[in-house]
Structure formats: structure tokens, C-alpha cells
């Protein structure tokens, strides 16, 4: 922690999140694009990097840290697990991956597991990430329904494989993005909406671990919920005005990434709220608790984080909800 950070923490009192080293890694062509989106949106509080087999994509990426992978892949492998037997990378490359990832408390990886590079490299990178001792999360979009059958095959294989190598898997359904935006939107706009949801998911995690917060917690709290068996889904909402937190919460819960049945069968729900430090009323926080507790079952473990985000106006908030154990 820098001296200035320590002084800032002292100035804002004792309700300070512990500093956590977070790395975000985009893998393959889609992972490069998603992390580029995070750079363009100005995500801070995490180190952003990309890893890919395509030298040109790596060279031209505006992401600050990048690694060219020397993966050898037979992308015409038959539709069975043998694909993962056909993925080979050198020891030098594995050492470079480790060097990039070393020292983090939390590593978030993202790729659409639909092409050979992302699908092939993600489990290898995830394994190395775990070896460093970090908590590992993969955020994986499921390709649009109109994509090539080969992409869908890679996705099915990739999801089955990646879940063995990470602590937590968050799945984003591209089709549901299209369903909510309508099919008249352009392909770049659809990709932007998808990347935006991933931006909010990552931003909420980073904010909960790096911003000052109202309620005390640390990484182990959300670790226990997110690392439940199966996968998680995520929804995002914004609120403004008198019922800002209730509205944002409702928007996140009713986003079609989260089905009503998901909430009823979830083993855990994580609710990240970013609010202005000037919001003082506890009744507003209660709106969130009531909205979420009202739609989960009695056994569901719910975890709420209210992080103070200085630039937010007093009547503005953002809520991101992860539903885990599906
Ligand atoms: N979110 C997002 N997804 C994209 C973008 N461009 C392509 N995709 C998706 O990425 C998938 C294709 O996989 P890529 O990531 O290009 O494949 P790769 O990992 O580079 O693997 P190879 O090209 O086969 O070596 C498809 O499902 C596309 O819909 C983008 O700009 N943003
Ligand atoms: Mg590619």
C-alpha cells in the first residue's frame, strides 16, 4: 500500500477494504477484444493483460500487458475430449504465463470458448493461475445461436474442461443479450453489450475489494459463495432517484441472464452495490436486502457489499448480482 493510500484510508476512517492484487486476463481473439473494452471503459484497480496465439492481435492490442502464446492446436480435432490432448504449449511459454500471473490474490480470466486459441489456452492458463495460489474466476460468454456448429462444439468442450481448472465459473449467455436488445442491433453493438456486462461484473468485484465499504468483509467471503459447485450467472442494474437501490436491484434481478428459477435453486447470491459515500439512509440499503431475500430460498447464502464510489452522485447507484451454485 502506498503512503498516500494509507493516508487516504486513515482519512476515511476504519471502514476500509483491504488492498487486493487483482489481475484480469483476456484469452484468445474474443478475450483480447473484451479486455480492450475494459481499457476503453477505464477500468481501474486491476492489472489488465491479454494472452493470445495471434501475433498481430497481440502486437496491436492497446491492453498494457500482453503475451504471445505458442500453443499448437489441431482445431479440426473430433468432437470429443481428445481436443484437449491435441493442445500443446512449450515450457518457456508456461513459465512466461506464470511470470505474468504471479503475485495476484485474484485472477479473473475471460474468453469466448468458441475458437481454438481461447478454448485451448484457457484451461492451461487457469491451471497456472491456480498454481500461483490466487483465487481464480473464469467469465465465459456462450456464443450467439447463429454461430458455426464448430464454435458450439468448442464451447461445450471448453466449458466442461475449464470448470475443472478454476475456482469459480461465471457464464454469460450471448443469446439472452440479443433477446433483450432485439435482433435489429448491429453485431458490434451486440459485442459491445456483451463486453459491457463483463465490464460491470469485473468492476463490481474489483470495487468490492478495493474501495472503502460500509460493511466489513474480505475476499474469503465472496470466495465461499462463488466457488460453489456448478456455475454462476450475473445481472447488472442502475438506479437513480428516491428508490435508487431497489430499482437497480430489480433491474439486475430481472435482467434475462438471471432466471427466476435460478434464484430459487441458487446456493449463494452475491450483491455488489456501488453507492455514493453521501448516501446515509439505512432504509435504502434495506431495499436491496429485501428485494434479494424475497426471491431466494431459506437455505441460500446471501452476501451484500456496499462499496463507496466517490464519483457517483448521491442519487445514483449501480448493483451487480451474481447467482451461484447453478
Ligand atoms: N465479446 C466478443 N466476442 C467476440 C468478438 N469477436 C468475436 N467474438 C466471439 O469469439 C468467438 C470466436 O472465438 P475467437 O475468440 O475469435 O477465437 P480464438 O480464441 O481467437 O481462436 P482461433 O481464432 O480459432 O485461434 C465467437 O463466438 C465470436 O462470436 C468481440 O469483439 N467481442
Ligand atoms: Mg481468433
Please explain how this structure is put together.
Helix 2 crosses helix 9. It is built from 13 helices and ten strands. It has helices at residues 3-11, 28-40, 55-60, 82-85, 91-101, 116-131, 149-162, 174-181, 187-210, 219-226, 244-254, 260-265, 282-293; strands at residues 22-27, 47-52, 65-68, 106-110, 135-142, 168-173, 233-240, 268-275, 301-308, 316-324. The protein has two domains: 18-209, Rossmann fold, CATH 3.40.50.1440; 225-324, Tubulin/FtsZ, C-terminal domain (60s Ribosomal Protein L30, Chain: A, 2-Layer Sandwich), CATH 3.30.1330. The radius of gyration is 20 Å and the shape is globular. The strands form two sheets. Strands 3-2-1-4-5-6 form a six-stranded parallel beta sheet, sandwiched between helices. A four-stranded mixed beta sheet has the order 7-10-8-9, sandwiched between helices. By secondary structure, it is of the alpha/beta class. Bound molecules: guanosine-5'-triphosphate and magnesium ion (MG). Guanosine-5'-triphosphate (GTP) binds at residues 28-30, 33-34, 53, 75, 112, 114-118, 141, 143-144, 147, 151, 191, 194-195.
Topology:
Layout: H1 3-11, E1 22-27, H2 28-40, E2 47-52, H3 55-60, E3 65-68, H4 82-85, H5 91-101, E4 106-110, H6 116-131, E5 135-142, H7 149-162, E6 168-173, H8 174-181, H9 187-210, H10 219-226, E7 233-240, H11 244-254, H12 260-265, E8 268-275, H13 282-293, E9 301-308, E10 316-324
Parallel strand pairs: 1-2, 1-4, 2-3, 4-5, 5-6, 8-9
Antiparallel strand pairs: 7-10, 8-10
Helix pairs in contact: 2-6, 2-9, 5-6, 6-7, 11-13
This protein binds guanosine-5'-triphosphate (GTP) and magnesium ion.
Residues 28-30, 33-34, 53, 75, 112, 114-118, 141, 143-144, 147, 151, 191, 194-195 line the site of guanosine-5'-triphosphate (GTP).
Amino acid at each position: 500500500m502506498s503512503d498516500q493510500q494509507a493516508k487516504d484510508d486513515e482519512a476515511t476512517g476504519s471502514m476500509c477494504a483491504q488492498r487486493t492484487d487483482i489481475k484480469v486476463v483476456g484469452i484468445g481473439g474474443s478475450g483480447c477484444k473484451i479486455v480492450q473494452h475494459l481499457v476503453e471503459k477505464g477500468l481501474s484497480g486491476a492489472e489488465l493483460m491479454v494472452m493470445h496465439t495471434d501475433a498481430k492481435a497481440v502486437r496491436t492490442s492497446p491492453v498494457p500487458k500482453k503475451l504471445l502464446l505458442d500453443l499448437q492446436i489441431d482445431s479440426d480435432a473430433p468432437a470429443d475430449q481428445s481436443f484437449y490432448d491435441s493442445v500443446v504449449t512449450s515450457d518457456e511459454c508456461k513459465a512466461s504465463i506464470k511470470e505474468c500471473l504471479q503475485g495476484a490474490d485474484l485472477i479473473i480470466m475471460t474468453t469466448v470458448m468458441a475458437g481454438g486459441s481461447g478454448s485451448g489456452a484457457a484451461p492451461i492458463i487457469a491451471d497456472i493461475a491456480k498454481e500461483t495460489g490466487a483465487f481464480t474466476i473464469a467469465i465465459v460468454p456462450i456464443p450467439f445461436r447463429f454461430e458455426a456448429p464448430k464454435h458450439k462444439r468448442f464451447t461445450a468442450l471448453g466449458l466442461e474442461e475449464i470448470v475443472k481448472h478454476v475456482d469459480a465459473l461465471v457464464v454469460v449467455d450471448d443469446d439472452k443479450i440479443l433477446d433483450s436488445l432485439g435482433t435489429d442491433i448491429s453485431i458490434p453493438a451486440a459485442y459491445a453489450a456483451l463486453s459491457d456486462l463483463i465490464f460491470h461484473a469485473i468492476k463490481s468485484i474489483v470495487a468490492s475489494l478495493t474501495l472503502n465499504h460500509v460493511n466489513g468483509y474480505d475476499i474469503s467471503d465472496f470466495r465461499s459463495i462463488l466457488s460453489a459447485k456448478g456455475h454462476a450467472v450475473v445481472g447488472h442494474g442502475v438506479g437513480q432517484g428516491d428508490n435508487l437501490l431497489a430499482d437497480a436491484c430489480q433491474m439486475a434481478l430481472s435482467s434475462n441472464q438471471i432466471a427466476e428459477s435460478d434464484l430459487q435453486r441458487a446456493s449463494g447470491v452475491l450483491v455488489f452495490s456501488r453507492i455514493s459515500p453521501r448516501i446515509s439512509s439505512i432504509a435504502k440499503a434495506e431495499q436491496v436486502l429485501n428485494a434479494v431475500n424475497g426471491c431466494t430460498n431459506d437455505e441460500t447464502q446471501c452476501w451484500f457489499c456496499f462499496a463507496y464510489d466517490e464519483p457517483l452522485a448521491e442519487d445514483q447507484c449501480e448493483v451487480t448480482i451474481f447467482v451461484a451454485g447453478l
